[in-house]
């Protein structure tokens, strides 16, 4: 564990991060609203965001008002853009930043059809985590979701977030109780997580049809085993 005697980090800010498959960019309302709405399925956004706490959107204007509201609440929303098509295919936000303790959450995560089950989806989250740990110098990176949201929990675990437990009756969401599942990555875990991400994202890990040869979870388990043996 690092020496925390003089530990100090700045709040996160908007950032542009470019990978081979996709790019993370700051959300700009006048430039991106309609394209983000389209990339998340238009009116199909409501089932996609079933476990978000806000009410269903009646259209793109409602969505835009909500994005402005969460910005006022401290969310730093970023879009995900495909480097191949140039289309906006998803979003996520830095939120609940606690610089004094080196903690920040990635939330408001939504993957449109253009990025699901693709290297792009893994790559953008690798880029965000790398930025949090290596550029910002944070100690803890959080992922939280409705405990009923099995796809989100599966995704968090796949990326290497560790499940920490469930906060019961944590929120009221869409007029019902929400229990919240908490996940995190820590700075001392990042070297192994980073190596697994980079091994998985390597072109050598994909066959002629673009299918993965080794699962991210399997690569991480192998690297974790090697680290334990060295210790």
Quick description:
The protein is an alpha+beta fold and about 230 residues long. About 35% of the residues lie in helices and about 30% in strands.
H/E series: EEHHHEEEHEHEEHH
Distance between the termini: 15 Å
Total strand segments: 8
Provide the spatial order of strands within the biggest beta sheet: 1-2-3-4-5-6-8-7
Profile the largest sheet.
8 strands, mixed
Helix content: 25-40%
**CA-atom Rg in angstroms:** 18 Å
Structural category is alpha+beta
How many helices does DSSP assign? 7
What's the rounded overall pLDDT mean? 95
How would you sum up the global shape? globular
What does this structure look like?
By secondary structure, the protein is an alpha+beta fold. 35% of the residues lie in helices and 28% in strands. The chain contains seven helices and eight strands, in the order E-E-H-H-H-E-E-E-H-E-H-E-E-H-H. A hairpin with a 4-residue loop joins strand 4 (88-98) and strand 5 (103-111).
Which key terms come to mind for this protein?
alpha+beta; 8-stranded mixed sheet; 7 helices; globular
Please outline the helices and strands.
Layout: E1 17-18, E2 22-26, H1 29-39, H2 45-48, H3 60-72, E3 76-82, E4 88-98, E5 103-111, H4 119-135, E6 140-146, H5 150-159, E7 162-173, E8 176-186, H6 190-201, H7 216-230
Parallel strand pairs: 5-6
Antiparallel strand pairs: 1-2, 2-3, 3-4, 4-5, 6-8, 7-8
Helix pairs in contact: 1-3, 4-6, 6-7
């Amino acid at each position: 564990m690092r020496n925390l005697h003089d530990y100090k980090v700045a709040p996160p800010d908007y950032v542009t991060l470019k990978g081979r498959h996709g790019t993370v960019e700051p959300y700009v309302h006048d430039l991106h609203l309609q394209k983000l709405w389209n990339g998340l399925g238009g009116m199909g956004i409501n089932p996609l965001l079933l476990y978000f706490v806000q009410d269903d959107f009646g259209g793109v204007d409602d969505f835009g008002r909500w994005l402005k509201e969460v910005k006022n609440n401290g969310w730093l929303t970023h879009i995900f853009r495909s480097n191949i098509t140039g289309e906006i295919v998803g979003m996520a936000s830095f939120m609940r930043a606690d610089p004094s303790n080196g903690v920040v959450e990635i939330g408001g995560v939504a993957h449109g059809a253009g990025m699901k089950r693709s290297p792009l989806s893994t790559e953008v989250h690798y880029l965000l985590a790398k930025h949090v740990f290596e550029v910002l110098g944070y100690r803890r990176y959080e992922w939280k979701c409705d405990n009923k949201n099995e796809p989100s929990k599966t995704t968090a675990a796949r990326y290497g977030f560790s499940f920490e437990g469930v906060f019961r009756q944590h929120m009221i969401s869409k007029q019902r109780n929400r229990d919240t599942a908490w996940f995190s990555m820590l700075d001392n875990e990042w070297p192994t997580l980073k190596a697994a991400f980079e091994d998985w994202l390597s072109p050598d890990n994909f066959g002629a049809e673009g299918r993965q040869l080794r699962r991210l979870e399997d690569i991480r388990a192998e690297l974790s085993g090697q680290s334990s043996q060295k210790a």
